[in-house]
Amino acid sequence: MQIQVVKSKIHRVKITQAELNYVGSVTIDQDLMEAANLIENERVQIVNINNGERLETYVIKGERGTGVICLNGPAARKAAIGDIVIIVSYGILDFEEAKTFKPSVIFPDSNNRLIR
After folding, report:
1. Which of 33, 47, 85, 89 has minimal CB crowding within 10 Å?
2. Catalytic annotation on 90?
3. What three-state secondary structure class fits 36?
4. Is 81 helix (H, G, I), strand (E, B) or coil?
5. Is 8 a catalytic site residue?
6. Rama region for 35: left / alpha / beta (φ>0; ψ in -120 to 50; rest)
């Protein structure tokens, strides 16, 4: 049996931009992507702490070191600049492997920068 588990999580980052006129996705600072073990085009769930909205989209690389978290396209309607969100991706693992798997979880600072 295989089950779906949390693979990566960026806990409590601030939305820095919202671009309605875009094909769709979430732009994430490349430093945050790498620290959370996310790759471009990976499916993610975004949970908005401010308003309770949940959405699914895919990741595109943002400029390294900028702290950018930009909702693009229709997703831009689900959050305001300054809202705090959690970004989660999931992986499918064998049941036994899932018991010991450790996800990549990061806790950026209030400026969406990695805490070292």
Report:
1. 47
2. no
3. helix
4. coil
5. no
6. alpha
User: What's the first-to-final CA gap in the chain, in angstroms?
Assistant: 38
pLDDT in tens, 54-92: 999 999 999 999 999 999 999 999 999 999 999 999 999
Assign 23 a pLDDT band (cuts: 50, 70, 90). confident
All domains of the chain in start order, with CATH = 2-106 (2.40.40.20)
Q: What gap in Å lies between CA 114 and CA 116, rounded to an integer? A: 6
Amino acid symbol at 38: L
Tell me which of 8, 22, 25, 104 is the catalytic residue.
Answer: 25
Q: Angle at the Cα of 63 (from 60 to 66), degrees rounded to 5? A: 120
| pTM over the 0.90 mark | yes
Residue 11 token pair:
């806990």
Taken as a whole, the chain contains a residue count of 116
Non-local (6+) Cβ contacts of 34 within 8 A are none
CA-based max dimension of the chain: 44
Among candidate residues 8, 22, 58, 104, the one labeled active-site is 58
